[in-house]
Give the backbone structure.
Amino acid sequence: MSQSVQSMIAASRKKKSKKIVEKLVPIALFLAAAVSVLTTFGIVFTLIFETVEFFTRISITDYLFGTEWLPFSGKEPLYGVLPLILGTFKVTFIAILVAVPFGLGAAIYLSEYASDRTRRIVKPVLEVLAGVPTIVYGFFALTFVTPVLQQIIPSLKIFNALSPGIVVGIMILPMIASMSEDAMSSVPNSIREGALGLGSTKFEVAIKIVLPAALSGIVASVVLAVSRAVGETMIVSLAGGSTPTFDFGFTGSIQTMTAYIVQVTTGDAGYGTTIYYSIYAVGFTLFIFTLAMNLLAQYISKRFREEY
Amino acid sequence: MKYLNDALVMKRMGSRLKSNRIWKAIFIIATSFALLSLAVLLFRIFSQGLGYLNLDFLTNFASRIPEKAGIKAALVGSLWLMAIVAPVSIILGVSTAIYLEEYAKKNKLNDFIRMNISNLAGVPSIVFGLLGLTVFVRLMDLGKSILAAGFTMSLLILPVIIVAAQEAIRAVPNEQREASYGMGATKWQTIVRVVLPAAIPGILTGSILALSRAIGETAPLVVIGIPVILQFLPTGVFDSFTALPMQIFDWAKRPQEEFQFVAAAGIIVLMTVLVFMNSIAVFIRNKFQKRY
């Protein structure tokens, strides 16, 4: 009997096909993993390559410090990116104003006050809210939020910064709520019970004990949400308008970096024109902003994490 | 037997308990705001769109007349798109996850791959559109085809699928691998016959959720420049096509009020597809997921 098992093992060892498979598979899998790295290189090289072409036509200082973005004015097009950046910041600012208080409030309620049953109902609903496509939010901003706001603020234009800002805020709210809730839930119960035993109320526990302990996770979630808001496209394209302005009002039409790229690609600017290359310069600017935010969020959650 | 002087305690605690109650109410209001937003959004879209939603809407092509506008080309186009995105992104994503979890040694190269994936997940979708426009549409000369859009979308959701698959593979306990090795199985045999079967519910759930994100994603399609008013269905992957969110975007932009109702009807179709996909994901998660 033992003889036959040994001969079976020996026979199996001799099979060459098996050895080849064992050697080839890791290589094939590594190649698949390389695709994601290639994607990053592809993005970076595409953006740099076409942006450099853009800067052979438009001076880089005009682009970075110009306060007028008029690419479509036939004779003297102006490519100063600041109005687009300002438009993006306006929307992001309002979004944060909406999402941080409501998102944090929801996170504190879910992690400190809510019963298990409530949590089991509310968390999936938040997931649904996070899964709604942005085009749907854009439609909602344009056809519902803007008309409602116009009832309250009569001077509000059809396209403005306020309405898409609020809706982007609703879009990133679940992200802040669920990531902050995760951070707060991971604070050990013994610390909570210690504070409660000393006579703290639940509110005091939440604000003085849990919030500081979970702060790195909360800040990281807000930074990631900012990055999402900066890169958000469809809501601002539908409800924000397409007039890049360099002022600090929230009631007039604006244009964000993403909305400009959409405007050009839905229009008929031909391949090789300066306008065509400008979307890569704007895309590169956008990429730098979001990359910086993402790296910052990673740094915060790594560097300041409390270990229990 | 009374150790506490209630009056004294209440004098100190009263205001603190009151602020606790007030803040609890504020936190509940904050939570309700999110739930209320979702309710209003759904109510608005259904009340606007239901009137335009009928069988003709599903079987008509796009039209200049709102009453005759239909979503057939977009619905079929989105299915074609998924036919490319699903195999490409799942094969690449799961292979990457297997590599990272089972084969990758701890070295600089693999750390770089890991860091790269988490950063890729944070790149705005419109930037993926620029990549697709340059590499797939122009450089590889695929045009505004299903293939070009499908590759772009696959790369967009790749990080999501990788992370989901990694978690599913990591959840398979090491004892099972060791038992398999102990029986004389090779590494690849162990992965194919032990690890993957145990991880497949998690992988499928994550993949379906990622695909449902791809089906609602608009920005990359806009940048690639796929058309909206199509009067024919694609017959192969090199054909041009249109997709659900793209069609909705076009309708929502039109100034006539009727087209807003058409857009709302389109959104109902899109959301129905999403709910369907998500139910499958939840079903798989609840039915097949093992807890170790």
About this structure: Chain A is about 75% helix and 0% strand. Residues 78-303 of chain A form a domain with the MetI-like fold fold (CATH 1.10.3720.10). Chain A has one domain: 78-303.
